[in-house]
Amino acid sequence: MGLNQNSKNIVNDAIIKDISDSIHGVSFGTVTIIIHNSKIVQIEVSQKSRFDDVWIVQEGGGI
User: Fold this and answer.
1) Is this structure's pTM higher than 0.85?
2) Which residues pair with 43 in a beta bridge?
3) DSSP alpha helices (H): ranges in the chain?
């Protein structure tokens, strides 16, 4: 799935920056890129919060 030499660059610097910022802003989750008519039209970010350490019950502790 490569671009040939005569293809237009459909991803500009602003889109690349938005995608990069989205990826770097998420510790756990997904970044979805929505394409319409072969063009990037939307970036969706779903962030997950993990609470693994909260559920460690120590002696005399609990929720």
Assistant:
1) no
2) 33
3) 13-24
